[in-house]
Specification:
303 residues, alpha+beta, Phosphorylase Kinase, domain 1, two-stranded antiparallel ribbon, disordered N terminus
Length: 303
Amino acid sequence: MTLRESTPPADLTTVLHAACAQTGLDPAGARLIHHYANAVFLLPKEDAVARITSARHADTARTGLAVTRWLTDVVGYPATGPLPDLDPIDVHDATVTFWTYYAQHGRPRPDSTYLGAVVRQLHDLPHPPVELSRWRPLHSLHAAVADPAQSRALSDQERSWLLTRIEQVQDDLADLDYPLGWGPIHADAWAGNLLWDDTAPAPRVVLGDWDSVCWGPREVDLIPSWHAAVRYGKGPQWARAFADSYGYDLAAWRGFDTLFAMRDLVQIAGPLRQAPYNQTFDRSLKQRIAGVQADDRNPWVEF
């Protein structure tokens, strides 16, 4: 797993060491390798990673852990695997889970063809023996934007406009008929959540980051690849390769534009959290809001 590295805040290090003390894992040499919605630490002594989630999202962390245990241990689905026999640890207003570390050895990241295959496989599975929440599109984003403490990077005008737009897209989503039906969905199925797994008898690609797993319309897991083709400059061939691998052309469905608008809004959530502390994220937030307001199909520049 090769992700953005940074210097961890002192409170995250405290949480990590407290959780490791409860599990008997060795945090020596721990390194923060990702800090976005969650903080992810590499534990080199254990060949594992620790994911630190805010306590307010403890239920989703527990659900993701239970689902991936079923996927990996029972049905043999290619998901990132949690460390065996370790329950989530609640400590210092956070929840910590522990996972297998997948070293990427400088390989190219798996592309949309791999993603289409693993999403198709997921959508063909039965309901897991885990209670899944029902998909609530843009619910957490609406709450964050409505809370001045969480959205202080926004002007009052931006906040008001975004709340109206979120509610409009939510209404549009509720009016759609979903031809692929409802079932267990990943709900953030983009290629950045794919990793090479060399722990299996033969190298394979696994799907990670199961914090958003829920019961919802399967089309939700398809839109990220079309969105990446446009907003992140992957190009039409990226979406076509996904469609060929999955076996369905989402762009031919009448609800495509509504789902694209939803994904645009979803992508505001990440920089919204980080913008008050980081100018790069603030520029990214402003760019994305401008694109949503223009309702255009222009690529977003990575700052």
